Amino acid sequence: MLQQTLNDLGEDLEVDGILGSLTVAVTNLQSKINGGLLYNLYRDSRLKYYEWLALQDPRKLSVLRAGKTVSITTFRN
User: Fold this and answer.
1) 77 within 8 A of 34, measured Cβ to Cβ
2) 35-52: pLDDT as tens digits
3) One Pfam family from the UniProt entry (predicted)?
4) Domain residue spans in the chain?
5) What is the mean pLDDT of the chain?
6) Rounded distance, CA 77 to CA 71, Å?
7) Which of 69, 47, 15, 70 lies closest to 6 in space, CA to CA?
8) Which DSSP state fits 17?
């Protein structure tokens, strides 16, 4: 999710789910350039994933509720 979010901000990372040194470096760079936007986009992608999980298995609604509770904060640039 993080790599795809970074790519949405114009980066060109392989989306492999591995948090390697390149992903960390690009995250640090983007957090300096687009800190609030990066946070908000990443938060939104996580919430969409939690919503997808809940649709697949209603027993996972607690995951969705927890994700929304934790992810309320919005940062502004």
Assistant:
1) yes
2) 899 999 999 998 888 788
3) PG_binding_3
4) 2-70
5) 84
6) 17
7) 15
8) S
Give the span between the Cα atoms of 53 and 19, in whole angstroms: 22
Q: What angle is formed at CA 66 by the lines to CA 64 and CA 72, rounded to 5 degrees?
A: 100
CA distance linking residue 20 with residue 51, whole number of Å: 27
CB 14 within 8 A of CB 3: yes
* Separation in Å, CA 38 to CA 23, 35, 53, 58, 60: 13, 5, 23, 29, 26
Q: Exposed (0-12), middle (13-18) or buried (19+): which is 50, by Cβ within 10 Å?
A: buried
Residues 15, 47, 24, 74, Cα dihedral to 10°: 140
N-to-C CA span, the chain:
21
